[in-house]
Amino acid sequence: MIQINAQLTFRDYLHYSYHHFFRRPITKIYLGLFIPIVCWEVYKISVDYDSGIGLIWLTLPGIFLISLASIYVQAKSVFKSSKAHHELIAYTFTENFIFIKSESLQSELKWDTFIKVVETNKLFIFNTTTRSALLIPKASFETINKMEELRALIRSKPELKHKLKTSA
Length: 168
Description:
By secondary structure, this protein is an alpha+beta fold. The protein is built from four helices and eight strands; from the N terminus they run βαααββββββαβ. 46% of the residues lie in helices and 23% in strands. The strands form two sheets. It has a four-stranded antiparallel sheet with strand order 1-2-3-4, covered by helices on one side. The protein has a four-stranded mixed sheet with strand order 7-6-5-8, with helices on one face. The chain is elongated and about 70 Å long.
């Protein structure tokens, strides 16, 4: 049994939002097709009006910065709107269940509820669907051994897809 008390911060949620955005297939299409097409069109316009290629160097970072800013604004809105994001949550991981308890929530989830577990530099992300997940900040772990125990427990579930780090 592994017990963790965690409180999600806005920075943790923002990290998840950027991670989630850049992992989605639509984002890869957007970055791989849409941006080069826009840049090509801007280049053609700049050549037609003899303005050089300086305009393309403004367009590319502009599109990227607008994307990052929109993710930030959306993450801030979602984080502020949910009371559960601000509470201290107690997680208990057992061989068959994950128990979750906070001021406004009490839940018991089987391991087969999760479709994938991903470990980033700052979070463990337990995906329940492609759009929702439990987020556990690594800073919440009292010791590295607890993190290793959780990794071992996750790896012991053959039906659970996971992408975990090899060590801390």
